[in-house]
Design goal:
Helix content: 40-55%
Shape: rod-shaped
Strand order of the largest sheet: 1-2-3
Number of domains: 2
Largest sheet: 3 strands, antiparallel
Order of helices and strands: HHEEE
Radius of gyration: 40 Å
Length: 125
């Protein structure tokens, strides 16, 4: 009867109210899904934490090695010998092997302030 009296038939979407039984069934399914989801999220967090614990030391070693390769040197702190070159107003540092490992300009307080200059020769210090 509807089809005989209508202007045309076409596909059309609309909302239909659920019965109380259908709503109760959806609520039950929702709580089951929420419990499953919560368990999976907990498991995911546990697994992620385990993996992060394994990654952390490897990542640190990776960063250290990458830094060494990029810098092409390693930082060392050891007893070094400091020499003042007054004529050049320069401070030079030598390591235990006698290699020059650093130099900088001498500060004013490091330069000899009087007119008598004493040169160290290494024999009568």
């Amino acid at each position: 009867m509807l089809e005989a009296n209508c202007s045309g038939v076409e596909r059309y979407g609309y909302r239909q109210d659920l019965t109380q039984e259908e709503l109760d069934d959806c609520r039950t399914q929702l709580s089951d899904v929420a419990i499953k989801l919560s368990r999976l999220e907990d498991e995911k967090k546990r697994i992620t934490d385990e993996i992060e614990a394994k990654i952390k030391p490897i990542s640190g070693e990776y960063g250290r090695l990458l830094s060494l390769i990029k810098e092409k040197s390693i930082f060392k702190e050891e007893e070094c010998f400091k020499f003042l070159y007054e004529d050049q107003k320069l401070i030079a540092y030598y390591n235990q092997e006698g290699k020059l490992v650093g130099q900088r300009r001498a500060r004013a307080d490091e330069l000899q302030g009087n007119i008598f200059r004493f040169k160290k020769e290494g024999t009568n210090d």
